[in-house]
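In this supplementary section we document a worked example of the pipeline. Step one takes a protein sequence of length 293 as its only input; no multiple sequence alignment statistics are reported here. Step two produces a three-dimensional model, which step three serialises into structure tokens for compact storage. The input and output of this example are shown verbatim.
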Amino acid sequence: MLRSILYKILDHNKSSFVHFQAEYRKYQALLREGGSNNLAQWPLESLKKILVSLGNYPRPERLYLIIDAIDESAAKDRWDIVQLLHKLTSMRSCIVKILLTSRPTNELDHHFWKPHNYIRLQSANSTDILMFSNSILGRDLGLPSHILTSVKDYIATHAHGLFIWVHLIKEELLQYIERGYTANMIYRLLQSLPTELERFYEEILRRLENGDKQDVEDGLRMIRIVLSTHRHLRVAEIHHALAIPDDPDVEFSPTDESFQNNLVLGIENHIIHCGGNFLNITGHSGIFCPYKY
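The serialised model returned by step three reads:
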């Protein structure tokens, strides 16, 4: 993250290289010591020194940093980085404005940001979350009104402003109510599901990994294909891709008949079953992973 920030600053303002020179020379010496094949990364402490030094730019400058999803950084480094950025904003010779976005984490407790502008997402979009819940739950689940009200109240309390979490809850409920249910069964299901998005992903992956071996292989393969493309794939493209052997060393010269025999029947159900909630199918966009973009 720091390398990316510093690169963009330098690319935007070439004269800022004066702050890079000393640490850049140290890095070049490190490369020389390791030989021509050395691929040593620029030391983290060196990057920190450069970033802080930018706050003492010799003439007044305005610097705007927008850093998305800082919660996805390594937990052991996150608080250190946040404090470093906070220190940068206190420099007087350079005006630095920083916008951070993050899911709720212990390291980014909002009390730290009280002197600054702070938007708590779940407070700002609680009405939108409720409208979204009303829309997808009432339309897709067909739950009785007394159960639906309790489900919406639970979601409004635990969504933390995340629409993706609401979508995942809906998918879990859809699978559950197909088997028949009682109100108490629905409430127990909701309470058993993780309220943290990362733990929710881990739970989905755990279920996929414990499934049928072929289903696991197909699910991983579909996710790899979808994540490696620059556009949404059509169902037919995934359908044909699964009919081709995954091993590049296997010779593959099929006849029309043999290729047809390798095509999965009921491909849309297979995508949903093997891909868990990591793959979505829409009528106009094809297949996509909502966590890629």
